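TL;DR need structure tokens for one chain.
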Amino acid sequence: MASTKTPQITLTQAPSGGGGGRLFNAAGTAKRLRASPLFAIGPSEPGPAIRRGALLAVPIGVSLGIEFGFDSPTKGAIATGALLAGFPGMDAPAGPRAAWQAVAAPLIGIAAAIGILSSQSAPLAVLALGLLGAIAGYCFSVSLRLAILGLSVSLALMVAQGLFLPTEDAAPALLWATVGALGQAVWSLLVRLVADRAVDDEESGWSWAAARAALASNLTLSSPNLRHAIRFGTALAAGVALYRLLGMRDHGFWIPLTILFVMRPEIDETHKRLILRALGTVLGLILATAAAEAFRGDDLVTGAILTASAGFAFGLLTVQYALFTAAITVYVVLLSDTLGEPALQAADERATGTALGILIAFLAFAIWPNPGEGKEVR
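>> reply
TL;DR here they are.
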């Protein structure tokens, strides 16, 4: 059965004793924390990963410069499309990465348009994200790359829903999100021509036959991938329903956003992400709020910080999840502040949304765990 799981990181735990009878042994505690899989560095090497992230951030920086510098009515839509398209194929060389991004681009645009249209009705919003989330979750049956593409498209729909824009903005959203995403693909092609010629024979890792076989073989409730698809789609739908019921129109999408980022087919990986997401969000909110207050009105500095935070988000995703969460939180909060939403006033609502999302993700596994995993909940 063809199935790809999220990479697991296993490190040897440091001895838990020590301290010579003292009440608290700071050095020993620090060693145990460093040895914990929660705070592990990897599987990617930080240097190459961050350099790759810096490359992926270039189209975002260019888009932000155009949108802010010329006071564009697109209001960050192009840069957001470029951000979302940076994730599919991000671990691949530039040539295959461009192919994955080119496929993702129209899907991201369509999802953004559907997000705006479905946001006009709460039941439609719940149904749309629940279905797309289930599809994205089932993509884990084929490969992690396909799953990331599905998650990126789901994220486009989710963000568009959370903005509560009028229906006439659906067509512009489709256009500008697609343009931004295609800009990422074009940039990857340029990188291939200039720097990646040595990997001309590198394959994209895609096989239609293998994909069909994997999808068919996982179509059973005994498959963790199908169970994840159902669990994931249901959790995302519950997140949308909750923020609609609570009237959280401005920042409610942080509930399903948190669910999307933390839930994986395996319970252990999900629980790690729950903790790291909470830590990273708090750190990101502090950094973003401080930057917003310190550089308010300075578009040049703000654009530079946004570009840097996007680069670090791409680079740190496969290095340290808490730091990735902090970087992406800085990007989202600072961009929202630039568009007129005070970061300081919204910080508590975003923290609340994150906490509710973490709770839903935890309950999803507690209510319907994978076979043999229920006893692992702690």
